[in-house]
Design a protein that fits this description.
Layout lengths: L1 E3 L12 E3 L15 E8 L22 E3 L10 E5 L4 E5 L5 E5 L9 E2 L10 E5 L11 E5 L4 E6 L2 E6 L6 E7 L2 E6 L3 E6 L12 E4 L4 H9 L4 E5 L2 E5 L4 E4 L5 E4 L6 E6 L13 E5 L2 E8 L2 E9 L23 E8 L2 E6 L4 E7 L1 E8 L11 H20 L6 E3 L5 E2 L6 E8 L5 H9 L3 H11 L5 E4 L9 H19 L5 E2 L3 E5 L2 E10 L6 E4 L2 E4 L2 H6 L4 H12 L5 E6 L11 H25 L22 E2 L3 E4 L6 E8 L10 H5 L5 H17 L2 H17 L2 H7 L9 E2 L27
Antiparallel strand pairs: 1-2, 3-27, 4-5, 5-6, 6-7, 8-12, 9-10, 10-11, 11-12, 13-14, 14-15, 15-16, 17-18, 18-19, 19-20, 21-22, 22-23, 23-24, 25-26, 26-27, 28-31, 29-31, 30-31, 32-35, 32-42, 33-35, 34-35, 36-37, 38-41, 39-41, 40-41
Length: about 750
């Protein structure tokens, strides 16, 4: 499987190439559609080249269009536009026109692109980075109506002379061969070796024979375009469309009537197999779909109106249903529904498009790295994977269904990632819409999990305290963790995974929250290579995540559902307990409280609960009362400590009585019985001095204990958090290579 990715908005059209074996397109009831026309760059009143989006940008004498060569743009978001003095980049989604290179030193034709001067581009073609026999970085070949072939690789321009006494009009690539259209009745064929360096003297000549009409026009016209396909060589001369075999023998031509100025093969197909690509041609005022069979060529109007004479100012009108064109010079078809055209006389780049239906989609509580420093390289890969899942689910080829990358957004409050999916009206159906809204994107989410695995910092806590069944409460806690991490690391775009149970010795006594942040917080590059970033864990260890979590948990509950209990030392000698016994006492207390709540519920008449937040419950999760650890409360001026403990009662569990009034009535006899037994046990093990010594040591240990000790020594522990890398033997985010069939159906950020 091979993937390149991306897609189209109303103001721009995108591309994905996918080579994959799938079933035939499913039948679909299409919406009524028309081919519209829109301006995407430039304007008629310009007197100089200007960068910017449509409406602001200006481009002098735009002519050839070809695909981007940047290896960091695998989705093909950018187009390359050749002008009188510059090569430009055009973002198909934002319509931003930017300078690439061109106005270098006088008469410098090769070398670093910042030094090269362009003198008027006639044709260009791109060999993508993944093509066989080419440079892995990709190459753009171009001609300037002289006798040289030029190309750009790694931001360096090279050149080679081709033939003798010829001018080159256009360039086309088929497989590993490059073809050049000349001012004579010949085409040069050049082999593209590994690295993309072409030797002009080694190019062979294909003489075009069999059409005196073509030979006569070829010598006089200064307006030529062509493309080479498996069917042969198609050439336009501002007259008929001519068709020659690959050996140069004439096959056929269109009849008089339409004067074609350019012809190109679409880069992508309307079928997922990619076996059929459309041949598209244009006159100065219309765009056509071309069919060649036998010795005949037929053409079907896509957009525009065929005119022998037109006015460039009056006859270039954008319209969603009936656009007009005048002065078309070059075309770049993505497919038959997405064709870019340049109009040199008005200095504009326009697009023929079929309107889309936009379907909003959301992946809840899953922050994509939209605002990270490496989003420009990371997001296209993730969105390309999502596009592939949409295509396979809908049985519709790219770019007819795809995400608009310019409109992907992250909600800073909910951490929901939202994105619009554009579905071409040609392929629209209710079934396709339903498929889009129900796509789970599991493969892409595992890719996202792998992306976040580049850093390895976690916060641990006690799951017995956290309201794991309430999504909104947990989000507020997770946001508090992220806010504290943001503050200490001084970076505002840090998020967290969902908290999930962390099992130790068969008991889920902890929760695990992964910090989601850029890779620079995990590894740094220095002269020796990538090294671990030691600053990140050092800074995170200074944060009191325990206090932050406890404070947020308290705030998440209604005040009357938070109950604090203080045990006075003279009545409840909890200080005499060992640490293990304190944990046992914690669960004795928990049992007493939950039984008391149940009694109060049984003694109180039932009433209707407020179900307004039922949608906030985690499916399948049973709410439970939260409990903190026993906490020492020193008594000022006295050598004793009292102990406090807090309960968090879910609002949906007990709503028909006052929690405080209920728990104030507790009889703590069972706790006293436990303390009496514990006291006798401890007394038998050592004398009074020993007991005092143990109590002092336990107090000190309890004050400094970290969660690592919690993991090693306790099944039910106090709320304690620490930032630490995940042990390799413990659960962590996994790639699709590691998951079982059950795990692969889950969002790795929602575990």
């Amino acid at each position: 499987m091979q993937l390149c990715a991306r897609r189209v908005s109303v103001a721009a059209v995108g591309l994905l190439c996918v080579i994959i074996t799938v079933s035939a397109l499913s039948a679909t009831v299409a919406r009524a559609f028309d081919h519209g026309g829109i301006t995407v760059a430039g304007g008629p009143e310009g007197v100089d080249d200007v960068e910017g989006p449509v409406g602001t940008s200006r481009i002098m004498n735009p002519f050839p269009i070809c695909a981007n060569v940047d290896p960091t743009d695998p989705s093909g978001t950018m187009l390359l536009i050749g002008g009188a003095s510059y090569f430009f980049t055009l973002n198909r989604f934002t319509t931003y026109l930017g300078f690439w290179f061109g106005k270098g030193k006088h008469n410098v034709n090769s070398g670093p692109i910042e030094s090269v001067q362009l003198k008027g581009l006639y044709g260009c073609a791109t060999l993508p980075p993944s093509s066989s026999g080419s440079s892995t970085t990709g190459t753009v070949y171009y001609v300037q109506h002289d006798g040289y072939l030029y190309w750009v690789t790694n931001n360096v321009v090279s050149m080679t002379p081709v033939g003798s006494g010829v001018n080159l009009f256009d360039v086309s690539i088929r497989n590993d061969d490059l073809y050049l259209l000349t001012s004579s009745n010949a085409v040069y064929q050049c082999s593209i070796p590994a690295g993309g360096v072409v030797t002009g003297s080694a190019c062979s000549v294909i003489v075009l024979t069999g059409s005196q009409d073509y030979i006569g026009l070829s010598k006089s016209t200064r307006f030529k375009g062509f493309v080479v396909t498996a069917q042969g060589i198609f050439i336009t001369l501002n007259s008929k469309l001519y068709w020659f075999a690959l050996n140069g023998a004439f096959i056929g031509a269109t009849l008089d009537g339409v004067r074609f100025v350019d012809v190109k093969l679409s880069h992508y197909s309307d079928t997922l197999t990619g076996e059929t690509r459309d041949l598209v041609a244009a006159s100065t005022s219309a765009v056509y779909s071309i069919t060649a069979s036998g010795t005949s060529i037929t053409y079907t109007l896509i957009a525009g109106t065929e005119k022998q004479e037109c006015n460039p100012v009056l006859d270039n009108v954008d319209s969603p249903t009936n656009p007009t064109f005048c002065g078309i010079t070059r075309i770049y078809p993505l497919n038959r529904d997405s064709v870019y055209v340049t109009i040199s006389t008005t200095g504009t780049v326009r697009a023929v498009v079929v309107a889309n239906t936009t379907i909003s989609n959301t992946i809840a509580r899953t922050p994509f790295p939209v605002k990270f420093e490496d989003s420009a390289s990371a997001m296209p890969l993730m969105l390309g994977s999502m596009d592939l899942e949409l295509m396979l689910g809908c049985d519709i080829a790219f770019p007819n269904v795809a995400i608009d990358p310019a409109s992907v957004a992250l909600n800073d409050m909910t951490w929901d990632t939202t994105f619009p999916v554009h579905l071409s009206n040609r392929f629209f159906s209710d079934a396709a819409k339903a498929t889009i809204t129900s796509t789970t994107f599991m493969r892409s989410l595992h890719m996202l999990g792998g992306y976040y695995n580049r850093t390895n910092q976690f916060v641990f806590g006690d799951w017995n305290v956290l309201p794991m069944c309430r999504q909104s409460k947990m989000l507020s806690i997770e946001r508090a963790i992220a806010d504290n991490a943001r503050a200490v690391l001084k970076y505002e775009h840090i998020y967290t995974s969902n908290a999930y149970k962390f099992t130790v010795n068969g008991q889920p006594n902890l929760t695990l929250v992964k910090l989601l942040m850029p890779s620079a917080f995990g590894t740094l590059w220095d002269r020796t290579g990538f090294v671990e970033n030691q600053t990140t864990p050092s800074l995170l260890m200074t944060v009191d995540f325990t206090a932050a979590i406890l404070a947020t948990v308290r705030e998440a509950y209604q005040p009357d559902h938070v109950y604090d209990q203080i045990f006075l030392s003279d009545q409840y000698p909890l200080h005499i307990l060992t640490e293990a016994q304190q944990q046992e006492a914690r669960w004795v207390i928990y049992d007493i409280v939950t039984k008391q709540l149940l009694r109060c519920a049984q003694d109180t008449p039932a009433s209707s609960s407020d179900s307004s937040e039922d949608g906030d419950l985690v499916p399948g999760c049973v709410p439970r009362v939260g409990i903190t650890n026993l906490t020492e409360i020193p008594v000022i001026g006295l050598p004793i400590v009292n102990y406090g403990i807090t309960f968090f009662v879910p609002e949906e569990m007990y709503y028909n009585f006052q929690i405080k009034s209920c728990l104030d009535q507790i009889d703590w006899k069972d706790l006293l019985d436990y303390l009496e037994i514990a006291l006798r046990t401890n007394t038998r093990k050592c004398d009074t001095g020993c007991i005092v010594g143990i109590a002092v040591v336990c107090a000190v240990v309890a004050a400094i204990l970290v969660v690592v000790v919690v993991i090693l020594t306790s099944k039910r522990r106090r709320l304690a958090t620490v930032v630490a890398p995940a042990a390799t033997s413990e659960p962590k985010f996994i790639s699709t290579l590691d998951v079982t069939s059950e795990e692969s159906s889950r969002n790795p950020l929602h575990r």
